[in-house]
Amino acid sequence: MTTSNNITKRDLNRVFWRSFGMEWSWNYERQQNVAFAYSLIPIIEKLYKSDRDRAAALKRHLEFFNTTPHLSTLVLGIVTSMEEKNAEQEDFDVDTINSIKLSLMGPLAGIGDSFIWGTLRIIAAGVGLSLATQGNVLGPILFLLIFNLPAQGLRYYFMHTGYKLGAGVLAKLQANGLMDKLTYAASVLGLMVVGAMTAENVSLNIPVVIGSGEEATTIGDICNNIMPGLLPLGFTLFIFYLLKAKGVKTTTLLMLCALIGLVGAFFGILG
Predict the structure, then answer these.
(1) d(CA 250, CA 236)
(2) Of 43, 15, 24, 11, nearest to 155 (Cα)?
(3) Which of 66, 98, 148, 201 sees the fewest Cβ atoms within 10 Å?
(4) Does the global pTM surpass 0.70?
């Protein structure tokens, strides 16, 4: 593999503008993967000269990806730097590229959703609505400015910062043999975030009562006494098993979840 010229500011800006596709390109199976690969097309076309290498890079970035769109450029910047190293070095471990992507997207989503959607958007909406209800045309204008100036400013800043971070820090980590340790640590952090999201977002309860009188208790309470969130965890692992081990399609799993919920609620098994 050979590379033509080093990545320039113009190249990074092209990725930045393409990253806006993260806002609307989404699917249930791999979520933002198409937008991520689309954003990197200018980089891939510049770094790799053969169709085979370009196809491999595009396929690499069509794996699952999902994070707050405005912070996705940090990952895009780091990945751009790693792809540049891969084009220059024959012995570069391409598996680390997706490992870094997967490990960063969880923590960034947690931070970004809290700040961008949970804080900045609320503040912007509050200011905009207070003026809009008075018939002031500045209401929607201020909403757009208060929200988009910081949000899109962060998107631009992280694009260039991510590339600089990847170009400098990742090279040192490789030289010192710390890349594997970083990937492992980031993976652990990502799994912790996924575990927290499972406990927070998956709701499952079995209200079937065992016993009578003061001794009566539900199966859901028994499971929670054994371990809080045991039922949501078990159901999540069951879905993961069907997805990975059995190869069941995502759409089929969504229909299965809806069916289980409807049947369970109808017969009083789930509540």
Answers:
(1) 13
(2) 15
(3) 201
(4) no
